[in-house]
Amino acid sequence: METQMETQFAMNTFVKETGGYVASQLEACTRCGICAEACHFYQATSNPEFAPVWKIELLKRAYEQRFTLTGKAKLALGIDKPITDADLHHFSKIVYEACTMCNKCSMVCPMGIQLGPLIHEVRTAFSEACVVPDDLMAAVNKQVKEGSPLGVTDDVYADRMEWVADEWEVELPMDVKGADTLVVFSSIEVMKFPENIAAIAKILHAAGEKWTLSQKGREVVNFGFYEGSPERTKLFISRVFDAAKELGVKKIVVTECGHAYDALRWTSYNIMDVPEGIEITHIVGLIGEYVRSGKIKLKEGAYNNGTLTFHDACKIQRRGGHIQEPREILNIIALESFKEMTPNREESICCGGGGGVIAIKEADPIRYAAFELKIDQMMKVGAKMVVMGCSNCRLQFTDCVQHFNLDVKVAGLSQMVADALEE
Amino acid sequence: MPAFTITPVEKGILRCHHTGPFSHEDVRPLAGFLHDYRGKLLIDLRGSRIEEFARNIREFQPMMPTTAIFGAKIDPVLLKIPESYYTHEVCFFETEEEALTWLRNQ
To answer: The whole model's pTM is what?
Structure first.
């Protein structure tokens, strides 16, 4: 009986989500398969099940069997099979472990189908049916209970911030009412890359920004978004919005995290009331603005030694459009050493660790396989250093550079900017 | 005098020997080293006083690679951080031999 319940929950969600927009997207697909060639997991493994169009197969089948005459007839005649619990479990592995929601597939679709958001709808149905990988759900539950998927509780956050302030000798303003800008870090930065906190603080102070951190709105990562649960996505976003409203800020700056930026900047508008008059931006965009306006000055050629390349993060560059800013910055601080990988900008290949994939142990083999595409790209330009503006990508690069024993340094853009600030 | 020295033990393992109190000039390069280092780490606390390293060993732990620590009594609470997908195993041992044996098997 329990297994039938799973399918029922998933089917209800599929049906609930299938409005005119989703139906038109599903009807528009010609099964041309071009999306497969855009998917890094398909490219790396040639597994046809990793083709983006296959990842929405259950949504398509549910739509046809519930809403189309042909689908109903095929089901009645036994030509098509009804969706089963076994299908849910099988596809759960595919949509959570072999998809980073990078949305490159949507860019190449000749019919303009938004495959990424459709795959997200499938994740939503799986979330309702409770067929989400255990590792991912463990992180989600931790974020519900402790406020952070990486265990950054109130105490850990306060302790960590005090350590960074002491050892990097930076001021980290906390809960300052009347500040213009609320800066929200990801727990990956707090735990794994604490010098990013110091670097961003240094940049903000140099630019004369009136900013603050918030104890309450301390976590920008959103594992509810990875899971596909609108309720939990909303819960985690609301912690940040509530903090922003209480502090009366005009701007929220998402630091080096891509999916958090998507959740806060765009997804929020589709699932909840977003506080009016608060701009949401990404640290890469903000630093770019500081450089363009002359609020900060950077040392020319500070990183001119050894070839350096830039990894475009899916949610910051492709989705967020912050494509020029990092290039303008690197063309100042690394004019002679900066080389582009191919493809780049909005056509960049995902690192393979986004969308919650890096948190799922069972996904490690395909995560590493997908990263081999990045290795090829880096090797072709002879990169000795790779820079990015997303700490989740940075975690994936750091882990994979170790896994493949590569002689490549991995760096965050903010940290490089902070180290290249003119006094 | 720097708070630590880093020397090779064998292929894939470096020793980080704590030698005195940490200053800012020690913490920042150590953070940089932990980000760039790709191997395993042997932390040698012989001759150290707990008050000299307690705070930093706790704060550095989330950034550590697979690490074996020996040479001084450590409160296990110091090494307790939330388990997560990004962390590596960090264990305490009574002797250098035990620490190295464990590290070689990781």
So the answer is: 0.95
